[in-house]
Amino acid sequence: MKKVLLPALLVLLAVPAFADAERDPVRKVEPSKVCMINEQYMNQEQIPVEIDEKTYYGCCQMCVDRLNTDEKSRFAVDPMTKKKVDKAKAVIGALADGRVFYFENEKSLAAYNAMLKTQG
Q1: What percent of the chain has pLDDT over 90?
Q2: Cβ-based neighbours of 1, under 8 Å, separated by 6 or more
């Protein structure tokens, strides 16, 4: 009986959190699945680029080369706080169409989603 109840309980506990995430216009995504040059969520592992003990990701050799040579390509502006963020350290959120945004923290991503919901 315990073997059946535990998985069922875990599913029930996970559903509300997943449902809330589905309502957010910008959902948090794994950095390793983002091309940080094309600013696009790719839904598959990208090419890691190690620079100064941080990892960035690109989808092709051109993107890898640019990350290695163009320091500006490794930074973005948080759309909520307007602060400069390092893409390797950012919380990354994606729209349904795959466009990504970089946030300085989870709180900023949540505030951005709240703002979008009130506008929509």
Answers
A1: 78
A2: none
